[in-house]
Specification:
This protein is of the alpha/beta class. It has helices spanning 17-27, 57-65, 84-92, 103-112, 126-136, 141-155, 170-187, and strands spanning 6-10, 31-33, 36-38, 52-54, 69-75, 78-83, 96-100, 117-122, 163-166. A five-stranded parallel beta sheet has the order 2-7-1-8-9, sandwiched between helices. Strands 4-3-6-5 form a four-stranded mixed beta sheet. A hairpin with a 2-residue loop joins strand 5 and strand 6. Helix 5 (126-136) packs antiparallel against helix 6. The two termini are 12 Å apart. The structure holds adenosine-5'-diphosphate (ADP) and guanosine-5'-monophosphate (5GP). The site of adenosine-5'-diphosphate has 14 residues, from helix 1 and helix 5. Adenosine-5'-diphosphate is lined by residues 11, 13-19, 132, 135-136, 167, 169-170.
């Protein structure tokens, strides 16, 4: 059986990564979402085991010892990680995966899975990024401040990615991602 593909999607917080990932999942039934683990507190609209499995620092660190992670990183002050078993089970059964992870994680995944396709989502401007984080209404002022500071560092590393997409108009950004995914499926 043909192995599934891995699509890595990274972006500064608020650029629209979750929105675009949801559109991908709706339009490509053969692609699954890689459910990460995090020590971040769940937001109001987040349930355990959907976008994330929410665990404690102690549980996370135990899993580091047990070599549970394909990759893990500290992002905006919390641990985030991807289970190696989850990835391998999916791709070996022919399912493709979207990994919504930061650049530290992306670099580790590429070491393990060099064929992974790397997509970076950009906002049109920092002002727009800030407006989106404020209007999303899920994070405190302090959290938004930290995420905006980190955005500059994240954007400075965008050349690591195979594709950079500006999420100005959502439909246009999705059309570009759609093309990248279809091309990847046609290639082998
Ligand atoms: P991320 O997952 O990258 O942190 P989200 O997908 O949660 O970002 O998007 C942040 C906010 O911006 C959400 O309220 C979302 O509805 C909105 N948004 C996403 N893409 C666009 C777009 N192209 N135009 C306007 N608003 C957008
Ligand atoms: P959020 O808290 O907004 O859901 O995510 C914050 C950041 O953590 C985003 O950049 C997101 O891509 C990243 N992230 C989410 N899951 C993982 C993961 O499993 N590993 C890594 N390295 N980053 C992750």
């Amino acid at each position: 059986m043909k192995q599934g593909k891995i699509f890595i999607i990274s972006a500064p917080s608020g650029a629209g990564k979750s929105t675009l990932c949801n559109l991908i999942l709706k339009n490509f039934p053969d692609i699954s979402y890689s459910i990460s683990y995090t020590t971040r507190k769940p937001r109001n609209n987040e349930n355990h085991g959907v976008a994330y499995s929410f665990i404690t620092n102690y549980e996370f660190e135990k899993k580091i010892e047990k070599k549970f992670w394909a990759e893990w990183a500290m992002v905006h002050g919390n641990y985030y990680g991807t289970s190696i078993e989850f990835i391998n089970q999916k791709i070996e059964s022919g399912k493709s995966l979207i990994l919504d992870i930061d650049i530290q994680g992306a670099k580790k995944i590429v070491d393990l899975y060099p064929d992974a396709i790397k997509i970076f989502i950009m906002p049109l401007s920092f002002n727009i990024l800030e407006q989106r984080l404020i209007s999303r209404n899920t994070d405190s002022k302090d959290v938004i401040k930290k995420r905006l500071e980190n955005a500059r560092k994240e954007i400075s590393q965008k050349d690591f990615y195979d594709h950079v997409i500006v999420n100005d108009e959502l439909e246009k950004a999705f059309r570009q991602i759609n093309k990248i995914i279809k091309k990847a499926f046609c290639e082998n």
